[in-house]
Amino acid sequence: MIVGCVDVGSTFTKAAAVDAATGELLATASHPTTIGTDVLHGLDAALAATGVSPDEVRVCSSAGGGLRLAVVGYEALVSAQAGHRVALSAGAKVVHVAAGPLTTAGLAQLRSARPDVILLVGGTDGGDAEVLTHNAGRLARWRSRLPVVLAGNSVVRPELHTLLESAGKPVISTDNVLPRIGVLEPGPARSAIREMFLRHVIGGKKLSRGRRFAALVRAATPDAVLRGVELLGDGLAADLLVIDIGGATTDVYSVLLPDAERAHIRAAAAGTLWRSRTVEGDLGMRWSAAGVIEAARAERIIDLDPVLEAAAVLRSRDPGLVAEPDDPNDCRIGALAATIAVRRHARSGPDLRDVRLVIGSGGVLRHAEPGTARAVLRAALTDTAGGWALPREPAVVVDTDYVLAAAGLLADDHPAAALALLAPLLAPRPPQARHTA
Predict the structure, then answer these.
(1) To which H or E segment does residue 3 belong?
(2) Domains plus CATH for the chain?
(3) Residues 162-189 pLDDT 10s
(4) By the number of CB atoms within 10 A of the CB, which of 47, 60, 104, 163 ranks highest?
C-alpha cells in the first residue's frame, strides 16, 4: 500500500509518497500552501507533483496558525507549568497560561489570547480541588464555546465534566497531567488535545470548504513531527535534538534518555518531560522574520544591522517570497532563529550535553548546500554565550526529504515502515560515556 503523507504548512505544503510495507520513500514534492483559496488545491497539487497515486492520504497541518492552546492551572510553579509542557508536547502553540482562580480580568485576558482549546488542569489526584472547581465553574458560566480538555484532580473530574458539558461546552476529560507531585503524565492529555484538534478545531479554521480536508487530517504538524522524533530517538537509543526552522515558528524537539541524576531541581515539582518540544512563535523565516531580529537584539547576539533588518521586514511583509538557495540574509536569519530557539529550549529544562544526533529541518536548511546548512546549525551548537551546556561533538544531519512528519503520520499503525523511512537520518557514532557531574 502506498500512503501519501502530506504536511500542510503555513507557507508550503509538502508531500511524500511512502510504501507502507517497506518504508521506502518513493517520491517527494511541495507546492505553496493555498490558504487564500482552499488548502486542498495546494494539497492535491503537491500529491500530483510526486507522480505517484497513493492508496491512502494522511495529513498533518499547521496552516491557519496551527493549534492555539491556553493553559489554566492551579498555580504557576507546578500544575500550570506541567500543563504548559504537556501542551507543547501535544503540538500546540501555547498562547496563554493562567494560574490561580480565574477572575473577570483573567477571562478577558484568556479571550484576547484567542486560543482554539483550553487545557484545564489543577491539583494532584486526591489533593486540593478548590481552584480547579472554581475555574471550571467560571468557564462553565463564560459566554464562550471554546473546547476544554479537563486533565486535573481525578476526584472532582467527573462532576466538573458534567458541569462543563451541561453548560454546552465541548469537553473531553482525561487522566491528570500531574497525578502526584513530581510525576508528569503527558500521554493521555496529549491524546485528548489531538482528539479535540481533529474534532473541533481543524474544521473551524475555514481552510477548506466541505469535509474532505478535516477527514484527512490526523494531527497538528508539530504533534506528528514529535511522534517521528520519538520513534527516531527510540531507534537511536541516545539523546536527540531536532531544530525545525519554519516560516512562522522555529520548533525545537528533544528526546533524552531518562536519567534521574539529570532531573533539574527547579522542574522537580512539575515532573520531568524527557520528550519535549518548545515552539517560538516570534522566530520564523517569513511571517516572523522581523521577530528574529528583535529577539536577537534582546539576546545581545547582534547590534544594529540595517541591511539584515530590511531583509527581515521584507520577508515578514511578503511571506510568499522565494529566495535563492544559500541566500545570505536567509541564512543569517535562520542561524539567529536556530540559536535563540535552542537557547530557550535548553533554558526550559532539558540537559542537552549528551545529545549525540542533531537534525535540522526547514526550507532554509533543506534547500541549502550541505556546508551552508551545517553552518546555520553550527551557530546554535557553538553558542557559548547562551547560558546552557552545549552538546559534545554531536553528529549533524539535515532532513532534506522532510520525513519526520511523514514518519509521525505512519508511526502508530506502520511503525516498522516509519522507522525504515527515518533510517537515513540515523548517524551512528561510538557510544559515549555519560557525564556524572
Answers:
(1) strand 2-8
(2) 65-201 (3.40.50.261), 235-399 (3.30.420)
(3) 999 999 999 999 999 999 988 888 889 9
(4) 60
